[in-house]
Specification:
This protein is an alpha/beta fold. 46% of the residues lie in helices and 13% in strands. The chain folds into 2 domains: 212 residues, Rossmann fold (3-Layer(aba) Sandwich); 34 residues, no CATH class. A 7-stranded parallel beta sheet has the order 3-2-1-4-5-6-7, with helices on both faces. The structure holds nicotinamide-adenine-dinucleotide. The site of nicotinamide-adenine-dinucleotide (NAD) has 27 residues, from α1. Pfam families: adh_short.
């Protein structure tokens, strides 16, 4: 078990039943935070996620159900979090993807991606930030994407939602910059912008390239990386979690309003 610098803190990680969010929930738990898990999934998947966060070292963990596409459900989740926490750390990680050219993008898919990837983060922040400011400590880490910094074809709602999330985070950072003190840790709002990370979210894109390479999954991954990510390496969910954990430290009190790429050089091109 690592350094327990988050003892006594409470965190919410949306989209933490899988992938990057689950790794972040575990990392925050291992640093001593109590963690509220949220996301979709079977009863077994939810139970396993909560148990893994406790095993990682969280003093307590719970599941807060909410379909983040629904603003009322987000509000109910935040009220439940207030009773359980309240939240010192909010990580907005839930996200969905759909690829198609704009002319073929269903309007309902646009609405759904904007609701989950962008509006849900607005709602968690509007409800959590006043308490953080009042207590003089708070961390919001929004898991955007390299697609919050540069565009790609066939991802109109995803790119729009992630650019929006980067902009929203900068506004929130300016509005909260003066809260607290160096000693209290202040209130900071940042985005982490991953390139390719090996999770279920990108499986359809790997599968499409594997199919073009005679069904070879490794060749599919190499093709995906070669298109965009100069390092030629996928990140692991734990790599993204390590960046989030650093932003939650007291010493990170002056890092706010940033959008940190973890993308193997993708956005430097
Ligand atoms: P994932 O599919 O493994 O996890 C997504 C999580 O979001 C799951 O827990 C899922 O249940 C939850 N979720 C989806 N719709 C929801 C809803 N309506 N209500 C509540 N929860 C919902 O994907 P991931 O790769 O871990 O993605 C996590 C975040 O990282 C996303 O915001 C994604 O855009 C971002 N991201 C991923 C990559 C990558 O390469 N995997 C790259 C850049 C950014």
């Amino acid at each position: 078990m690592g350094e327990r610098f988050l003892e006594g803190r409470t965190a919410l990680v949306t989209g933490s039943t899988s992938g990057i969010g689950l790794a972040i929930a575990q990392a925050l738990g291992s640093a001593g935070a109590s963690v509220a898990v949220n996301g979709l999934g079977s009863h077994e998947q939810v139970e396993a996620a909560v148990a893994s966060v406790c095993s990682a070292g969280a003093p307590k963990a719970t599941f807060l159900a909410a379909d983040l596409a629904n603003a009322d459900a987000v509000e109910a989740m935040m009220r439940a979090l207030d009773d359980w926490g309240p939240a010192d750390i909010v990580v907005n990680c839930a996200g969905v993807q759909h690829t198609a050219p704009i002319g073929e993008m269903p309007a309902a898919t646009w609405d759904k991606l904007i609701a989950i990837n962008l509006s849900a983060a607005f709602h968690t922040m509007r409800l959590a930030l006043p308490g953080m400011v009042g207590r003089g400590f708070g961390r919001v880490v929004n898991i955007a994407s390299v697609h919050g910094l540069v565009a790609s074809v066939n991802k109109s709602p995803y790119v729009a939602s992630k650019f929006g999330l980067v902009g929203l985070s900068k506004v929130a950072a300016l509005e909260t910059a003066g809260a607290g003190s160096r000693d209290s840790g202040g209130v900071t709002i940042n985005c982490v912008c991953p390139g390719w990370v090996e999770t279920p979210l990108i499986e359809p894109q790997i599968a499409a390239r594997a199919q073009a390479n005679g069904g070879d999954r490794d060749a599919g991954i190499r093709a995906l990386l070669a298109e965009k990510q100069p390092s030629g390496r996928m990140s692991l969910p734990a790599d993204i979690a390590a960046t989030v954990l650093f932003l939650c430290r007291q010493e990170a009190h002056n890092i706010t309003g940033t959008a940190i790429p973890v993308d193997g050089g993708w956005s430097s091109q």
